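Following up on my earlier thread - several people asked me to post the actual chain instead of describing it. Fair enough. Here it is, all 378 residues.
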Amino acid sequence: MQMAFCFFAVMQNSKRILVAPLNWGLGHATRCIPIIKALLDLGHQPYIASDGVALVLLKKEFPDLPSFELPSYKITYAEKAKNFKIKMIWDSPKVLKAMAKEKKEVKRLVKEHQIDGIISDNRLGAYYKKVPCVFITHQLNVLSGNTTWMSSKAHQKIIKKFNACWVPDVEGKPNLTGKLGHLKKSKLDIAYLGPLSRFEKKEMPIIHDLMVLLSGPEPQRTFLEEKLLNELQGFEGNILFVKGKIEEEQTTEEISTPKGKILLYNFMQSNDLETAINQSEKVLCRSGYTTVMDLAKLEKKAFFIPTPGQYEQEYLAKRLQKQKMVPYCAQNDFTLDQLSRMEDFEGLTNFDSQMDYSALFTLFSKVNSEPTSTSLST
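Reply from S.P.:
Thanks for posting it. Predicted structure:
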């Protein structure tokens, strides 16, 4: 009888939560993985909504969960870094149109599937005023050069439409995001989660001298892939090269080099990727924030090549190099001998923090949520 009562109580508290990450590279989707797992562990029912490779990736990770396609923002990078901001401005009407469609689709999903709450990772239109809504971002300040003040205020205005803002970083110092994820003064309802990662550090034998881990929108992902495959021909040792191309089937290819070999994968799912990074001596990758969090969790030495023109990645790379953690260089400047610089850097450090997901998710049990600024990492 008591067991039946407990089961009934769990079912009563179970909530249907729509998890909607932005499709811009893979980072927004992958950092939602631990949140989706926590929802499942606590007896809730996650629903997945996104588009493009972000949706494909989460469907591969959670094939049994309901999933829906949202309108695409159709974000692509300029071919030249100097045109990045112009391209973003040019694409803004397209994004606004997609946001309007997104809001309508989210409203339909909430009503049709009796959704109790929404977790949006940087999807600006993924909210509905009749249910509690959370916005996940590490960019309370959106860096855009001499227009940073304007882009930051615009972003914060959108965040205010949500009941809470979750920042995947620690609140105090030291932290990973710096001025990206911390405001001097704010009326936003902010909760700091601590760094989010789908991975765990494991003691494993090192079998890859270098791991290349690519991600991000085209065409820059392809540009870097082609450059690295050429530059790394002279690398002494074994390279595991993950292209970050989410396709229907996983493919592998082995390339012999004068001083070793390159094992190519189009993509890896979380479990295999966790093992691969743990078994790699060093990692060469973009300086996207989700990648930074993953490598910090696994305490790896790395080398960063920021996406050309993306201010956020450039800021993170410069900040971590200044802190003597990870060296970086511009994409056009990369040569094989740059990798030797890693010897003079400490590598990333894990900010050990424990999240109380049970307390975090109580937001979705409140009809009229009025959360207050707090930190949920210890």
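The chain is about 35% helix and 15% strand. That should answer part of your original question.
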